[in-house]
Description:
The chain has 329 residues and is of the alpha/beta class. It contains eleven helices and ten strands. α2 packs across α9. The longest helix is centred in the N-terminal third of the chain and has 24 residues, at 12-35. It starts with 11 loop residues before the first helix and ends in a 6-residue tail after the last helix.
Amino acid sequence: MSDLACPLSATTRRRAACALGALALGAWATGNAWAAWPDKPMELVVGFAAGGGTDTTARTLALHLSRQLGVPVVVSNKPGASGELGLAHVAKSAPDGYLIGMSNMPGLVTLPIERRTRFKAGDFAYIANIVRDPSAFSVLGNSPYRSLDDLIADARARPGQISYGSTGTGTDDHLALVLFERLTGAKFTHVPYNGAGPLRTAVLGGHVLVGGMNLGEVMPYRDKLRVLAQASPGRSRLAPDVPSFNEQHVDLVFNSERGIVAPAGMPANARQRLADALRSVAADPLFQQQMQAQFTEMDYLEGAAWQARLEKAAAEFGALWKSAPWTDS
């Protein structure tokens, strides 16, 4: 408290009262500042290139979040290192609620298992998972591979000679390949890209023979691509004509889960407001309809329940990594 605010001629009691009044005013101002959150545009970081399923989900979600929160929510693509660059950017940002990130599981938990990353689990506030999108294997429409059996037979006959593109090392698309190889004895050459957009272009251009992309990233291109299998437990209600791996005698169930994280330390009332907004978006029939149109399944789970599921997945992948590292795939 400065002498200008409480003159030297004031009594000790008056000085104390003045100081307490200033503290109360500061607390009131701080509380009201967070009560007004957000009062400026927000940034939603995507760790992959534009045009993929994560990017499409994020851009649709951003429009709905903007309406819920009353401020613009701008998507920012920061591709690289299988999504690590985007997650690291979120982890190192100020925890003021104005920068949040679209996360991808399994990458969120597998990348720190596979290598030293620039983020760790404790760097995030886990707000909510929103959707899931099954992994899938796709080829050009004129490919000689008419079925999954065709692909397996050729990969066994010519080990390492068939190229398989993924959205990056440690992503669900890459791990789907690792598990597929272990289940079938087939062997491919893994070619990582920095997102489904560039990968899809590579498959369409014949640069890789098989594309490991999520179902929602392939279905809009069914006139050019053939989906050999998708990794739901059974056929997806969103694509009932696409066979599952399971029905083709390959016990592979795998998907990408997409949710929202923020830097750890986000103020509790801002975090709650964001969680409430995401809950409202997930319950919105229009948003659900848009996700269905993108062949993406709703999978809403928030807060502690979502974090517990991620911790369980991390333990499972940790055991898988110890049994046989996947860096050679």
